[in-house]
Design brief:
This protein is an alpha+beta fold. The protein has one domain: Cyclic phosphodiesterase (Cyclic Phosphodiesterase, Chain: A), CATH 3.90.1140.10. It has four helices and nine strands. Strands 1, 3, 4, 8 and 9 form a five-stranded antiparallel sheet that branches. Strands 2-7-6-5 form a four-stranded antiparallel sheet.
Length: 195
């Protein structure tokens, strides 16, 4: 199983701002990834899989999972973050992820301002994950690129935004919080663990 420690909107009612914009703009032409009922809006801090604790039927052992949840609770439970979204970016995925995505797949992302507070949080979470013996799957350090993915589009001909989501740019009125979640094969944050 793949896990993701990420910043998510503090309450599920806040998800709508992002999911509705993704659905409205990309719902009829996405491929593999679209914010909605199967995907929670998030800004990844550190992804990892449980291969060192892997059980084909159960995933990560309950002991390892409880240790991570306890550490998150004591170190990050009260941590809130107010991201600033600075633009929209189209990223060709094949160049970054090899065979997972086809060569003409593009990610549509809200770019997050790379503030020192966010980078420090990312580094603390990645260090915690490494300390538990897991290998981070996402880029780290200077290569860390904070973003919130709205959708993946199947071809360059589909790279347009019918209704530009101006309301997504800037700093939202609500906070984001640190949560552990399960990710699917396409890196979607599918479910919060422990709530």
């Amino acid at each position: 199983m793949r896990y993701n420690i990420a910043l998510v909107p503090a309450r599920p009612t806040f998800y709508k701002l992002y999911t509705q914009n993704a659905q409205r703009n990309f719902g009829n032409r996405y491929s593999q990834y679209l914010l909605g009922k199967d995907s929670i809006p998030h800004i990844t801090l550190c992804q990892f899989d449980d291969s060192s604790e892997f059980d084909e039927k159960k995933g990560m052992s309950q002991g390892a999972l409880q240790k991570i949840l306890k550490k998150l609770g004591t170190q990050f439970l009260d941590h809130v973050y107010h991201p600033t979204f600075i633009g929209i970016h189209f990223l060709r995925l094949a160049s970054q992820y090899g065979e997972l995505f086809s060569s003409d797949l593009f990610s549509v992302e809200l770019l997050v301002q790379r503030e020192s507070k966010l980078v420090n949080l990312h580094e603390e979470v990645a260090s915690m994950v490494i300390g538990f013996g897991f290998q981070p799957l996402n880029t780290l350090g200077a290569a860390y690129r904070p973003h919130l993915t709205l959708a993946c589009l199947a071809a360059v001909s589909t790279l347009s935004i019918p209704s530009f989501p101006h309301e997504l740019l800037g700093t939202p009125d609500f906070p984001f919080v640190v949560r552990l979640g399960l990710s699917d094969d396409y890196w979607q944050f599918a479910k919060v663990v422990g709530e």
